[in-house]
Specification:
Elements (H helix, E strand, L loop, with lengths): L26 E3 L16 H20 L8 H14 L8 E3 L1 H12 L1 E4 L2 E6 L2 E7 L4 H5 L6 E5 L2 E2 L5 H8 L6 E8 L2 E8 L1 E4 L3 E5 L5 E6 L6 H14 L4 E5 L6 E2 H11 L5 E6 L5 E5 L11 E5 L6 H11 L4 E4 L7 E7 L5 E10 L15 E2 L11 H4 L4 H7 L1 H8 L5
Parallel strand pairs: 1-14, 1-19, 12-13, 13-17, 17-18, 18-21
Antiparallel strand pairs: 2-20, 3-10, 4-5, 6-7, 6-8, 8-9, 11-12, 15-16, 15-20, 19-20
GO molecular function: endopeptidase activity; serine-type peptidase activity
Keywords: Hydrolase, Protease, Serine protease
Family: Belongs to the peptidase S41A family.
């Protein structure tokens, strides 16, 4: 689910957040090939040998007779063949091939740091829009603003492109520069930005002014997401917050173990976080350990079309265990669990090795988590962040963000 551009695309209009890498829209579980994983042609099944022979025949035709011999690139052809094979599986946007460079970016994104210019992107209609520049980033310091429409990178127009394609054009080595062209109020503006290492906060929070409600935003399930969320809730409680909005909007997911740990903050020990279904249709209930402190705190969860994988696991767990009201829009619908298999050249395959269901047995792949209270964004709405809340009255915040207002209205009393 990034050159901090660091955000990702949206299916059917839903926003995909990326954090510097082409985003982990996923509930990912570590995996690897073991000794003996490679198969020689002699050990392949007959149908696989026939497929390889057909590919070799097609490759010979292209190599011998294609008019532009300079365009032949064995590495690109091999990777293209792998990508095509994975595309046939139907797990679009989840099961996928990563080049060695993309794999490094993926790993960096899970660590919470990355090299980029420091913006969050989302799709709005046909436009790729900056939803927020990251505080202290090159983009923010240069004057890039929320709502800017990305129209060009390094002088090349990008209208109509997927976010992932724009990300690949923006990313690059630390210290290099990229020219970003945006449209603001009908006027194009050009920013010459230096790529830097961005330490993007995974969790931020602020109290809604004049209330005992804290708005806690979790932007991804990176390596330390659960620990950072625990600290944020502790800080909010120490500052007088007694009720909480957990905002998972545009959170593309990340590590599966972090999702289970986060769900455990709010659920009684032994509660089911999700149900894992393997290729043989075997089912395993995955339970949380639970911990004291937040199991009784009034809680509402905010989601939208950009909430994916681990975000959906947490939202489904809290909904089905009657722990929290889920407010917003139907989520993305990522229903597979990924394992990563490294290949010999440093590339890897992120492969769906299991499906997951909500505790009540709902299969959400391509259908998503249905909120208890559906609230589409109103015309002109902007998602209010905790940093915004520090400078807005409650009325101003709710005027900007109808979903946050609805979450507040659904908040149970103490």
């Amino acid at each position: 689910m990034f050159g901090s551009f660091d955000k990702a695309g949206r299916r059917g209009g839903g926003a995909w957040r990326l954090l510097a890498f082409a985003v982990v829209l996923v509930a990912t579980a570590a995996g690897a090939f073991y000794v003996g994983r490679s198969q020689s042609p002699a050990s392949l099944q007959e149908r696989d040998r026939e497929s390889l022979e057909l590919y070799a025949e097609a490759l010979d035709v292209v190599r011998d007779d294609y008019v532009d011999q300079g365009a032949l690139d064995p590495e690109k052809q091999t990777r293209g063949a792998i990508e095509g094979m994975l595309d046939t599986l139907g797990d679009k946007g989840h099961t996928r091939f990563l080049t060695p460079e993309e794999r490094k970016q993926n790993q960096a994104g899970l660590s919470g740091t990355y090299v980029g210019i420091g913006v969050q992107l989302e799709m709005r209609g046909d436009d790729v829009v900056i939803s927020a520049p990251i505080e202290g980033s090159p983009a923010e310091e240069a004057g890039v603003e929320s709502g800017d429409v990305v129209v060009g990178v390094d002088g090349e127009g990008v209208r109509g492109e997927e976010i992932s394609g724009i990300v690949s054009k923006v990313k690059g080595p630390e210290g290099t520069r990229v020219e970003l062209t945006v449209s603001r109020d009908g006027e194009e503006r050009v920013f010459d930005l230096r790529r830097e290492e961005i330490d993007s906060p995974v969790v931020s929070w602020a109290r809604i002014q004049g209330t005992d409600v804290a708005h806690v935003l979790l932007s991804s399930f990176s390596n330390d997401a659960a620990e950072e969320l625990r600290d944020a809730f502790g800080e909010a409680k120490a500052a007088g917050a007694e009720r909480f909005v957990l905002d998972l909007r545009d959170n593309p997911g990340g590590r599966l173990d972090q999702a289970v740990e986060v769900a455990g903050f709010f659920l009684e020990p032994g509660s089911v976080a999700y149900v894992r279904k393997d290729a043989s249709d075997g089912r395993e209930e995955v339970e949380v350990e639970g911990e004291p402190g937040l199991t009784d705190a009034p809680l509402v969860v905010l989601v939208n079309e950009g909430s994916a994988s681990s975000s959906e696991i947490v939202a489904g767990a809290l909904r089905d265990n009657d722990r929290a009201t889920v407010v917003g829009q139907t989520t993305f619908g990522t229903g597979t669990v990924l394992s990563e298999f490294e290949l010999d050249d440093g590339s890897s395959i992120l492969l769906g090795v299991a499906e997951w269901l909500t505790p009540d047995g709902d299969f959400i792949r391509e259908t998503g988590i249905e909120p208890d209270v559906t609230v589409p964004p109103e015309k002109g709405d902007e998602a209010v962040s905790p940093s915004d809340l520090r400078n807005l009255s409650r009325e101003e915040a709710f005027e900007r963000d109808a979903q946050l207002r609805a979450a507040f209205e659904q908040m149970p009393d103490q």
